Amino acid sequence: MLETIKQTADYLKGKIGEIPNTAIILGTGLGELANEIEEKNEIPYTEIPNFPVSTVEGHSGKLIIGTLGGKKVLAMQGRFHYYEGYNMQEVTFPIRVFQALGIEYLFVSNAAGGMNSSFDVGDIMLIEDHINFFPEHPLRGKNFEELGTRFPDMSAAYDKELRQMAMDIAKEKNIKLQHGVYVGVQGPTFETPAEYNFFRIMGGDAVGMSTVPEVIVANHAKMRVLAFSIITDLGVLGKIVEVSHEEVQEAAKIAQPMMAEIMRTIIQRV
Ligand code: HPA
């Protein structure tokens, strides 16, 4: 594993030049934030040694190196989902490569179903914490001390200072920002009404099929993480309607400009 990570990191070092301190994972419907990245160099995942290849519609699959808000960043357009059949090592492989490159900050976005009754479709939720409801843990198995400790702390998986910055930025820019707990599930089914209710009672505000594995590995790697969900549908009893992948993508577009504004600003400031 260590050799594979090093090989990929070395390949990218040869392509990137000066290594940025920030990486972004652009989730469902948020790929357009990539259009705001300037002076960019794009590397399709298919060209990156050892990188899994994304298969889902709407996830185009490339690494983008460029500047966002004047700051050099590395962005993943398209991520690897557990439901696609990748194992946890594959899902989180890019994070290991970021670690090997010396990336310090990880910004993540995703689409999620909102279970908090004060949420609306199109809201942005700052993730304050998560509940790992995946059936497999990305750190299961041999621990490489070079990568991180056997029993990582998760008391502030989403960096407190970055969360405060995000809240301040949202306030400054008059952007409505919800906050709450993200429940990570494997999918690919959306939830039944009983499951949404269960996750709500369990302490969740939003539920989605990504992010948690990457954030766990980023914490293992001691990166500072900030993540947002775009609420694309509601899992609130009485408000649950049929939902499709296309509707999720459409709803994510509503919040996209605001999400981009928050991301751009915070990246400028770190
Ligand atoms: N559930 C799980 N994942 C999701 C949802 C949802 O309601 N919406 C977008 N991704």
UniProtKB/TrEMBL annotation:
GO MF term list: purine-nucleoside phosphorylase activity
Key words, A-Z: Glycosyltransferase, Phosphoprotein, Transferase
Record bears the keyword Repressor: no
InterPro entries: Nucleoside_phosphorylase_d, Nucleoside_phosphorylase_sf, Pur_Nuc_Pase_Ino/Guo-sp, Purine_phosphorylase, Purine_phosphorylase-2_CS
GO BP terms: nucleoside metabolic process
Domain called Nucleoside phosphorylase: residue spans: 23-267
The protein's Enzyme Commission number: 2.4.2.1
Assembly and oligomerization: Homotrimer.
Annotated function: The purine nucleoside phosphorylases catalyze the phosphorolytic breakdown of the N-glycosidic bond in the beta-(deoxy)ribonucleoside molecules, with the formation of the corresponding free purine bases and pentose-1-phosphate.
NCBIfam families: PNPH, PNPH-PUNA-XAPA, PRK08202.1
Protein name from the UniProt record: Purine nucleoside phosphorylase
Organism lineage: Bacteria, Pseudomonadati, Bacteroidota, Bacteroidia, Bacteroidales
